[in-house]
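Q: Please design a sequence for this.
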């Protein structure tokens, strides 16, 4: 295990983070929430914002998939996505919904948009990011898909988008 160069919770908390925030809007599955915590830990994401009825720690299903990342990754709860967005705006974050929408920007074209601070909103597993939330964003990022379904599990989408953002910032 030493070869993996794992940080302790304390070392993680003191580490310089990538200025990326994942916003989880009305996520039904606590397992998906736990998976995003684990991804956020892996990529040294600054924080997770939890909104609406999304489960938040401490929670049995979050713990099962987060494997302790719920203790290392900072998170905040907001009753609404609008409140989370207002907080992000005060902190000079550029905000994107991860959604298939008119005029969405394909993930591979996201490079030009990334600034020092960026937040991505991931929506409900069935209905996606709420339309009202999209209106408050700087745009939408779309993950290209070529099969029949044209939908990804939220934890998979978060992994893809967060990695693309972090690799451009590091």
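A: Design:
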């Amino acid at each position: 295990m030493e070869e993996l160069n794992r940080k302790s919770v304390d070392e993680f908390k003191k580490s310089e983070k990538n200025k990326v925030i994942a916003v989880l809007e009305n996520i039904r599955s606590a397992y998906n929430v736990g998976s995003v915590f684990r991804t956020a830990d892996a990529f040294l994401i600054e924080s997770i914002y939890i909104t609406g009825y999304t489960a938040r720690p401490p929670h049995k299903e979050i713990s099962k998939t987060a494997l302790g990342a719920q203790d290392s990754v900072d998170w905040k709860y907001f009753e609404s996505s609008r409140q989370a967005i207002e907080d992000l705006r005060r902190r000079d974050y550029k905000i994107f919904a991860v959604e298939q929408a008119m005029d969405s920007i394909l993930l591979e074209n996201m490079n030009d948009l990334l600034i020092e601070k960026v937040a991505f909103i991931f929506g409900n597993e069935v209905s996606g990011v709420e339309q009202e939330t999209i209106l408050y964003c700087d745009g939408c990022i779309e993950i290209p898909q070529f099969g029949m379904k044209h939908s990804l599990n939220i934890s998979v989408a978060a992994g893809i988008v967060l990695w693309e953002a972090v690799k451009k910032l590091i």
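Q: Thanks. Anything notable?
A: The helical segments are 9-14, 30-42, 60-66, 69-72, 81-90, 131-135, 154-169. DSSP finds seven helices and seven strands in the chain.
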